[in-house]
Design a protein that fits this description.
The complex is a heterodimer of chains A (about 325) and B (about 325). Chain A is of the alpha/beta class. In chain A, about 35% of the residues lie in helices and about 15% in strands. In chain A, helix 12 (about 255-265) links the parallel strand 10 (about 245) and strand 11. The two termini of chain A are about 35 Å apart. Chain B is an alpha/beta fold and about 325 residues long. Chain B has helices at about 25-35, 40-45, 50-55, 80-85, 105-110, 125-140, 140-150, 155, 175-185, 210-215, 240-245, 260-270, 290, 310-325; strands at about 20, 40, 70, 90-95, 115, 170-175, 190-195, 205-210, 220-225, 250, 275-280, 295-300. Chain B is elongated. The chains are: A alpha/beta (about 325), B alpha/beta (about 325). Chains A and B meet through helix 6, helix 7, helix 9 and helix 14 of A and helix 6, helix 7, helix 9 and helix 14 of B.
Chain lengths: ~325, ~325
């Protein structure tokens, strides 16, 4: 199917750089429309790959698709190596793998996944929360191990209604989480860079204060310099020993070592984690805890959002290549 | 706390009303009952049921044989004609669940025996658990959990995709307290709500289906939230499962017997439906072995009601019903046949 993007002067489809993790799904869709220079498939070190791309005939690539999760880091050196690059498209909402300031300085535009899978992430966050409070996965293990006839009743869970949920970051995803939890009778508190006039939830100017008045903390903010380890020892202490943490953002939003210690010592009550500091490595101590729920960065993984994400990525590329504004630009 | 029973003329301590107890209790509940009632505890007695009832009806209970009973469901004790014949003093049965399928409501009505259930005490907890099961099945939360705990993430890479909640058509069988709370929660996720109930409910805007087969044919998910009675036994049967189809999911927080369990297992094995989230089973605590190895089912051990808050609320509510009965006031949460 011919691309709607402006063909290059040579009439060939435009060249696109593709930085992906193994097993990533978008190859076929990209190859239908573009000449794909696939970093993972090349097997070359990054500088060699970029140099070859810069020299690509007939046109060096003007756009790149960069997946998150360690596929590549786009920094000054990267951009120096490929001056033809004017557009980066992330397949994630997060763009912490891209130096936005450097891109802005050079006039390189950046797009992310917009709100394509915000609802799926919010649904998963709520699923993790219910699972931790109501011990769903732990009860599942109890049943599958055949313990129900032997050990009788399973320990009690905790009610959702009335629980104060402190959301760190009330963006797209945070707002959708809030709306869902309100239907369960939870009380919503939040911290964001700025108070939001349009919502009636109680605002806290810092995460420590949010934690001290919350029963559950949900990390729903982007990862950047300010939010690295935003959940730290101090915040965990403020949350307290009945407190629960849910993380569907980035592993590095939480001081993972501190979290594991706090769980080990009973200084917080439980956690639902979809992300970790060194994926796919999950700290071994977590694997034997019954009060944590661990999923493999699957908050975004539904068939529907995978398909929507692909459409969005291609839509952004085609917009850029035909001189139109990006569908979902990220501002620095 | 003194019971509402009158003190004797000689100034002896008041006689606490006799209460038949056929339920295992946590210590707090047991203590609360013993403070207020003279408790005839079936499980503590160790006697077979007929002997226990005979003793309670006769000498052991003189001068006040029990007029009320707290009787749990889901066990082997049925409050039927034989039971009521054995303890003719009984005028009130209090169940500790929402379901009173263990009580013959017609027989009780015939004898003027009042019946109470737990009302809406833990309806929200059951609704929350139903939604949790649904998210878990669609988004494979527990299955992904197993994957992580077995150390497969570094080895096998990404876990297979789940499917989105938004836009899914959820057919609720029974739009009572619990069904309505489930509907309200799922609306917040963008689900489309359909239902079947004994009667259409004017006060809701959800699409009504006069029978479960038609409901299943237009739903992606079926949620069993109805009472168990003659009409609803095996309400989910082979025909309904076929109407639901191979992408369909079943969630059960009602009673195991609401579903033809053997048919459900066959349908899951054959891939004729996509998955199930079950908190109840036909022969608890036995869970069919075939289910224990399936990745597309989520199995919990009848815990939908069990939060610390609801246990405490249930205790207060049960005592309130009993005190209402013994002081001649209407029951808080009567159940009519």
């Amino acid at each position: 199917m011919a691309s709607s993007a402006a063909a290059t002067a040579s009439g060939e489809p435009p060249a696109i750089l593709f930085f992906r993790r193994p097993g990533a799904p978008f190859n076929a869709a990209l190859r239908q429309r573009f000449r794909v220079l696939d970093f993972l498939a090349s097997g070359e070190p990054l500088p060699v790959f970029l140099a070859a791309a810069a020299a690509a005939a007939p046109d060096p690539p003007r756009a790149a698709v960069v997946m998150g999760g360690g596929a590549a880091r786009v920094d000054a050196a990267f951009l120096d190596a490929l001056p033809s690059l004017r557009c980066l498209v992330s397949t994630a909402a997060g763009v912490d793998h891209i130096d936005l300031a450097e891109c802005a300085r050079r006039g390189v535009v950046v797009a992310n996944s917009g709100t394509v899978y915000s609802a799926d992430v919010a649904d998963h966050a709520v699923g993790l929360l219910i699972d931790v409070l109501r011990c769903v996965s732990a009860a599942e293990r109890f049943v599958r191990r055949g313990l129900w006839p032997l050990q009788g009743d399973f320990p009690l869970g905790s009610k959702l209604a009335g629980r104060r949920v402190g959301i760190i970051g009330l963006g797209n995803i945070g707002s959708l989480i809030a709306k869902r939890l309100e239907a369960f009778g939870c009380i919503i508190h939040y911290n964001s860079r700025r108070q939001k006039g349009s919502v009636s939830y109680k605002y806290f100017p810092n995460v420590h204060d949010l934690a001290s008045e919350s029963d559950v903390l949900v990390v729903a903010c982007a990862l950047n310099k300010e939010t690295q380890h935003i959940v730290n020892k101090d915040v965990l202490e403020a949350l307290g020993k009945e407190g629960i943490i849910i993380n569907i953002s980035r592993g590095a939003n939480i001081d993972e070592g501190e979290l594991v210690r706090a769980l080990n010592e009973g200084r917080i009550a439980g956690a639902g984690l979809d992300v970790f500091e060194n994926e796919p490595a999950v700290p071994a101590e977590l694997l034997s805890m019954n009060n944590v729920v661990l999923t493999p960065h699957s908050a975004v993984f539904t068939l529907e959002s995978r398909s929507d994400l692909c459409d969005q990525m291609i839509g952004n590329l085609e917009a850029f290549l035909s001189g139109k504004p990006l569908l979902t630009p990220v501002l620095p | 706390m003194a019971s509402s029973a009158a003190a004797t003329a000689s100034g002896e301590p008041p006689v606490l009303p006799s209460l038949l107890l056929i339920r295992r209790l946590d210590p707090a509940f047991a203590a609360a009952l013993r403070q207020r009632f003279r408790v005839f505890d079936f499980f503590a007695s160790g006697d077979p049921l007929p002997a226990f009832l005979a003793a309670a009806a006769a000498a052991a209970a003189a001068p006040d044989p029990p007029r009320a009973a707290v009787i749990m469901g889901g066990g082997s004790v049925r409050v039927d004609a034989a039971f009521l014949d054995a303890i003719p003093s009984l005028r009130c049965v209090v169940g500790t669940g929402a379901g009173v399928d263990h009580v013959d409501l017609d027989e009780c009505a015939r004898r003027g025996v009042l019946v109470a259930n737990s009302g809406t005490v833990y309806s929200a907890d059951v609704a929350d658990h139903a939604v949790g099961l649904l998210i878990d099945v669609l988004r494979r939360v527990s299955a992904a959990e197993r994957f992580v705990r077995r150390g497969l993430w570094p080895v096998q890479g990404d876990y297979p995709l789940g499917t989105k909640l938004g836009g899914k058509r959820v057919g609720i069988i029974g739009l009572g307290n619990i069904g309505s709370l489930i509907a309200k929660r799922l609306e917040a996720f963008g689900c489309v709500i359909y239902y079947n109930s004994r009667k259409l409910k004017e006060s809701v805007s959800y699409k009504y289906f006069p029978n479960v087969h038609d409901l299943a044919a237009e739903s992606d998910v079926l949620v069993v939230a109805c009472a168990l009675n003659k009409e609803t036994r095996h309400v989910i049967n082979k025909d309904v499962l076929r109407a639901l189809g191979k992408d369909g999911i079943v969630i059960n927080i009602g009673r195991g017997a609401n579903i033809d369990e053997a048919e459900l297992i066959r349908a899951l094995k054959d891939g004729r439906i996509a998955g199930a989230g079950l908190d109840v089973y036909e022969n608890e605590p036995k869970v069919p072995a075939e289910l224990l190895t399936m990745e597309n089912v989520v199995l919990t051990p009848h815990i939908a009601v069990f939060t610390s808050e609801s246990i405490s609320d249930l205790r207060d509510h049960t005592i309130s019903n009993l005190e209402a009965f013994f002081s001649g006031k209407p029951l808080l949460t009567p159940v009519l046949p």
